[in-house]
Amino acid sequence: MLGMVMYTTIKTLWEQGCNKSSIAKLTKLDWKTVDKVVKLVKQGINEIIKKPHPSVLDPHKEHILEWLENDLSGVRIHEKLAEQGIKISYSCIKHYITNLKGQNNICVRFHTGPGVEVQVDFGYIGYQLDEQGKLRKAWVFNMRLCFSRLDYYEIVFNQTVETFIKCHINAFEYFGGVVEVVKIDNLKSAIIEANFFEPIYQRQYLKFAQHYGFNCVPCRIKHPEEKGKTESGIKFFKSNFIKGRKFNNYIDRNTTLKCWLEKINYRIHGTTRKPPRELFELQEKFCLKKLPTEKFKFSTIGVRLVGKDCHVYINYSYYSVPFKYCGKNVEIEIEENIVKIYYEGKQIVIHQKATDKGQFITQESHYPAFKLITSKTNKLYYQEKMIAIGNHAAEFLSLAIKEQPYHWLNTIKGILSLNKIYTSEIINQSCQRAIAYNAISYRVVKNICDSGCYILPIDLNHQRGETTI
């Protein structure tokens, strides 16, 4: 296609009075090409409009965006497409990804109205003194109102779900209300699995968000600019509170932090050019939603690996999980008398809480049917099969379960296998004769079928239990 530079050259030469032949000679272009450009110039068209060319990768755009979001390289994306049977060159994929990404150093500024959004994050601040006077790894929690830039800071010693939620509660109480949206990083305290289209939320954090009436919005992976306000807040905290200060103990540090927090919320903010506290009091305070009247009730949560026996271990007791989850991590939630088990954010089973240590709380349906000889499901299945053969076959099954509680299944499977050779009527009559002589055995029924003695009359006066059949 003719480039924009050459188009401008032809346009300029034409406007300067050169004819088409001389322009073609000067530019070393075909006369017909020059003629087309001149016609466009005469029509007043000052630029070449490129026709859109759809890519063969357009139908897979959503998947490619998701893979890019999960930080997959172009080579890995090429491999994944190949796994799906899509044959395309790596250079084509590389070009397509480049067009999707655009320039990596460009970012978008996000503006929100009063009371709409806060951004939250943890930042590591090294070792700090805890309540017992011990040095431990510590993090600062920051919640920043996006409109006024009013900050809340709190120093913690872990990043558990419970700590994360308590920090939220303290921050909302400090602000005196709740916003519409809480934007977070993809912390394990809130997000079990980051996903471009539908992240899986940590169950307890989601319940907390519903209780307080806000929407939780995670940032895209490796896009810190989407929570740039709290990123700046944590950097500010490290530079202006942590560095150059020494604290005598836990109480001294927390007291100093409260005084410092009030002071910095009255400073002139570098972006808004107004004190955060002043902007908050004048415009944002009245836009916040009211705090809930009831306190949020915490439930014990955690993650457990489902064993090969289809059970998870919780507080010295065992709870069954459907067999298809064996070898997978599930999320547990313990309330007063109930244990709830989730997989990827969806509830898969609920149990009554064990009343004693070492107790097994088991639902037989969680095992594969073929693994349960005494399963009610198995019994029902084989009962239907034996009833289909006849009433004597059904009675044979009942006696087999009673007399052989641990190995009746193989006996009945043997009886059913006779259907390949004999009719249901013959098998039913053979079962009747075996029952009459109290011989609840596959071999006996098979011998009766093979010998044909099922047609012989049964001696009703014969005592059951004798060997002659």
Textual characterization of the structure:
The chain has 469 residues and is an alpha+beta fold. The protein folds into 5 domains: 39 residues; 44 residues; 171 residues, Nucleotidyltransferase, domain 5; 68 residues, Beta Barrel (OB fold (Dihydrolipoamide Acetyltransferase, E2P)), CATH 2.40.50; 85 residues, no CATH class. The chain is built from 16 helices and 14 strands. The strands form 4 sheets. A 5-stranded mixed sheet has the order 3-2-1-4-7, with helices on both faces. A hairpin with a 2-residue loop joins strand 12 and strand 13. Helix 13 packs antiparallel against helix 14. The longest helix is centred in the middle third of the chain and has 15 residues. It is flat and about 125 Å long. The termini are far apart.
Task: Provide key terms for this protein.
469 residues, 5 domains, 4-stranded antiparallel sheet, flat
In short:
With 469 residues, the protein is α+β, with helices and mostly antiparallel strands.
- What structural category arises from helix and sheet content? alpha+beta
- In the CATH hierarchy, what is the class of the largest domain? Alpha Beta
CATH superfamily of the largest domain: Ribonuclease H-like superfamily/Ribonuclease H
Order of helices and strands: HHHHHHEEEHEEEHEHHHEEEEEEEHHHHH
Q: Number of domains in the coordinates? A: 5
How many beta-strand runs?
Answer: 14
Indicate the mean pLDDT: 82
Radius of gyration: 38 Å
Helix content: 25-40%
Helix and strand arrangement:
Blueprint: H1 4-15, H2 20-27, H3 31-42, H4 61-69, H5 74-83, H6 90-101, E1 117-129, E2 135-145, E3 151-156, H7 161-175, E4 181-184, E5 191-193, E6 200-201, H8 203-212, E7 215-218, H9 228-242, H10 250-264, H11 276-284, E8 300-305, E9 311-314, E10 317-320, E11 329-334, E12 338-343, E13 346-352, E14 360-361, H12 376-389, H13 391-403, H14 408-417, H15 424-436, H16 442-451
Parallel strand pairs: 1-4, 4-7, 10-14
Antiparallel strand pairs: 1-2, 2-3, 5-6, 8-11, 9-10, 11-12, 12-13
